[in-house]
Design goal:
alpha/beta; 33% helix; 8 strands; 301 residues; eight-stranded parallel β-sheet; 11 helices
């Protein structure tokens, strides 16, 4: 597990703000009713009420509840999944408050330590949380040490484990991950450079978990694994290979507000990549509607 040392606030880099909604590329395809953006974050505007952890890797700008809902609407998304952002550590309060105000529209992925109480987990489930995130890339997250404990604590709740990791780590972790009693969901298509190639050990390990162990992948964060800003055409074969491997276990996410990157990306352009990754409307509907509906326990559309 990677360790992250606290730094003075002045030494922690500040993220760029997301582009204004009016600057987003318009939809390149008909977005189906019930579409879900499965990966975004909210950041409160009041650091006094919601303090960020000192071991964080970056400081994001506000990405408030209203800003998030406006983004979803502008993207043509009916529903959304909020992922607890690393800068708050295990303080899920703001995300949970937003979830509780929108029980039919939103679901969440939380971050907790292995000492979390059963009551806390039950309260999170009631708020709409359906999984836990492990994060070894950015400071403030919970790493692999807690993996088995948390998986067994939540298996009877129907939750899954979401991994923010570099898929090049997967080959050495496969013996442990194959034994987990809950499904795994891998962020950002494995968060490894697509330049490594489809035959690389990391991608093949990811594909193995999708095909043989019922895992899921998020078609998100193309700008985090591409070298071709801002069309990201080098990601298309990678995304198509994941879709082909498990068409019923891939979902799409914007990764808004796109923290810890420069230059800032166009959220609309990221959504429009689906036209190239999944050219058939019915396949896009599975990725945007039926797959996330099943994974996150949304009511049927």
């Amino acid at each position: 597990m990677t360790s992250f040392e606290p730094r003075p606030d002045a030494d922690i880099p500040h993220c760029l703000a997301p582009l204004p909604l009016g600057e987003h590329e318009p939809p390149a395809f008909d977005i189906p009713a019930g579409a879900v953006d499965t990966h975004a974050h909210v950041v409160a505007g009041d650091a006094g009420i919601y303090p960020m952890v000192p071991e964080r890797t970056y400081t994001p700008p506000p990405a408030t509840e209203q800003m998030y809902l406006d983004m979803l609407r502008s993207q043509g998304m009916s529903r959304g999944v909020l992922v607890q952002i690393s800068v708050y550590g295990t303080d899920n309060r703001y995300m949970l408050e937003v979830l509780r105000r929108h029980p039919d529209q939103l679901r969440g992925i939380g971050v907790v330590g292995p000492d979390v109480t059963d009551r806390e987990l039950q309260n999170m489930h009631a708020a709409g949380v359906r999984g836990l995130r492990l994060n070894v890339l950015f400071g403030g997250g919970i790493g692999f040490d807690a993996m088995e404990t948390l998986a067994h604590r939540t298996k009877d709740m129907g939750w899954h484990m979401q991994f923010l990791m570099d898929a090049r780590q997967l080959p050495e972790l496969l013996p442990r991950m194959r034994k987990l009693p809950v499904p795994g969901v891998v962020d950002h298509m494995g968060h490894m450079p697509v330049a490594e190639g489809l035959q690389s050990a990391g991608f093949q390990a990811l594909r193995h978990m999708l095909v043989d162990h019922g895992w899921w992948a998020k078609l998100s964060g193309a700008y985090r694994i591409s070298t071709r800003f801002d069309a990201y055409e080098d990601v298309t074969p990678w995304a198509r290979a994941l879709i082909e491997a498990a068409p019923d276990r891939v979902v799409w996410g914007s990764d808004w507000p796109h923290v810890h990157i420069s230059p800032m990306v166009d959220t609309g352009r990221l959504r429009n990549q689906l036209a190239a990754w999944a050219p058939e409307p019915e396949l896009r509907r599975r990725i945007l509607v039926s797959n996330p509906q099943r994974l996150y326990d949304f009511p049927a559309v």
